[in-house]
Amino acid sequence: MSTSIQDKKEYPLMWWGKDEIRGFDQKLVDNCNLPYNCRHILYRDPRFNPVDKDLYDKSPLIFVSIYQADDSISAFNRPEDLPPQKDVDAGKKAWVLYGWEAPKWFESKKSVINKFSYKFNYHPSSDFIYPYFDSSILDLVLAPPPATLEYKNTMRQKGFNDGRGLAPIAWIVSNCNSFNGREYYVHQLQKYINVDIYGHCKNLNRVWPRHADGREFTDLELTSSYKFYLAFENSNCDFYVTEKLKRTYEAGTIPIVDGPNDYGLFAATHNALIQADQYSPKQLAALVKALDKDEDKYADRLRYKYPKDPARKPTVEDLSPVFVGQWMNRNQSADYRSWPPNYDESMCRLCKMAHDVSEGLETLDPTKRLAPDANCLAKKHYRFTWMVEYHWRLSFLFVALLGMTLFVLYRKRGRWIPRLMTWLLRGWDSGMNYLALPTFDSKSKNSQWSN
């Protein structure tokens, strides 16, 4: 006789922090074919809520998210925002660090990171893996494109309702001060080719388009109208590839990427991507212009979307074996242990761990702690001249203020130079007296040294 969900015992998985984790609150983990379930519980404050105190005592795993509404890490700003450390040191509980952000946000917080025992994020080396991509990426890549190549070419000339033709490249950006300085590279790229920039940053040059009935274009509709798209990550870290690339695959647009050094697991075909760091801005512009003019070479990079034979549907055989092998949905049996690394598999392992620790079948190792993740390339696109050009107003203001200061000093040199010399000489005399160095007695008849 099978056990119903209602009859199964539940074990809590507690999320510590603010209510931005509301998507997990009360969510049931019940798809693991286990004789028990787990339920996500949002911690509020056991000092004022006895129910939370009881659940906290029963939760061996405490999840801490790096997120907050304003994109800062509030949980790391003050020690009192974290769970009691004594429970971890005693082996009663383990902290699980959760987050999809690149590790550069918290890698400098060594005193906090090494309090955690497990990592739950996108990286394949994590204890529990929650990748941006999953098996659905294959269906998304092979799905019919929302726009034809002819439509893209028409939009290049006609544009949206404003009648202004589109640039070859589009970029939607909201993080205006990225960790790697991607905006500096794009600014240099614009010297050699037009780039339409949408979003909330100062360098945007296009207004988000609307349909004739007033509806805003979706991200997909906008991206699919362009031939190229800048899928630039805000950080250059191993395996950190986000929805930006997924969007271009769905749109049938050639992605120009900048993220990890190795895109092997994320390249749908051998020539599906253009890696920006393999080209200077000038060289990249030349490549895009050449592909923009040559329809055959352009279409060849999108064969997974636009096959030569329109009657033939693309299949996984058209994709890179590495890409397919990484993301193919292997036949998931009832046993979660046979599943590929993904969110569901990780949640089932976490649920089993919570059960085993609670029932005394497994013990927590209080010495197991995380180390800061230093796999990111810091400030990749920071070039002094690029930064000066990008921030030209600030640069101009700085040069103007410096020039004015030097001019004033020059005009008043008759005053400040003697004062400066007097100040230096006084400092010299004070230093000599402090060190008690011998001085030469010029008034002595025998010109002898005196102390």
UniProtKB/TrEMBL annotation:
One of its GO terms (cellular component) is Golgi cisterna membrane. Gene3D superfamilies: Glycosyl transferase family 10, C-terminal domain. Pathway: Protein modification; protein glycosylation. It is a single-pass membrane protein; Single-pass type II membrane protein. Pfam families: Glyco_transf_10. It is found in: Endomembrane system; Golgi apparatus, Golgi stack membrane; Membrane. The chain crosses the membrane at residues 390-410. This is Fucosyltransferase. It comes from Linnemannia schmuckeri. The lineage of its organism: Eukaryota, Fungi, Fungi incertae sedis, Mucoromycota, Mortierellomycotina. The gene is FUT11_1.
